[in-house]
Please model this.
Amino acid sequence: MSGVEADFDVADVDFSKTDGIIPGVVQHARTGQVLMVGFLDEQALTTTLETGLATFFSRSRGAQWTKGETSGNVLRVEAVELDCDRDTLLLHALPSGPTCHTGEETCFDPGARPGSFVHELDELVRDRREELPEGSYTTSLFEGGVRRIAQKVGEEGVETALASVAQDDDALLGESADLVYHLLVLLRSRDLGLADVERVLRRRHG
Model:
């Protein structure tokens, strides 16, 4: 079993509207960034669900293909959603390398979605906590413990507030960046992440 989560059966999908193939949007399972769009027929969807690897149908070659089968940059699918019209799929996947053939992480402009880099930074902080590489400033924060990290967040918060009333925009942005970074470290020190904060915000404002 691949472990792919799907709350529908392949038989539920309406492949009839577009001659047996439907679009599948691939979204990064952690950051939410859209990575690519491909097309799937019934067999490609079945293969994706069975293997856990994003598999598509090539309209130009008329054949099934698995993303990364040549380059090794596969997309490991964690969950698949079916839209309300039953003719479009959303694949939540973790890339093992660049998704685009150009070598970029996404086939879309990586700077087009505000906040996407913050998610990448959150992932990096998580990795730093797991690996604790020697000489890393982030490692030194984790080794100092949650109280030390909390102190840094407090210091950066005060510096950000002061910059907002007494310094220029560049200074405010710089202090804000420091505050966000240290807040991410604090969250990870408590086994939390940016996605957890987003869930709270959605509940409050959804």
Observations:
- DSSP finds six helices and seven strands in the chain.
- Residues 5-95 form a domain with the Ubiquitin-like (UB roll) fold (CATH 3.10.20.810).
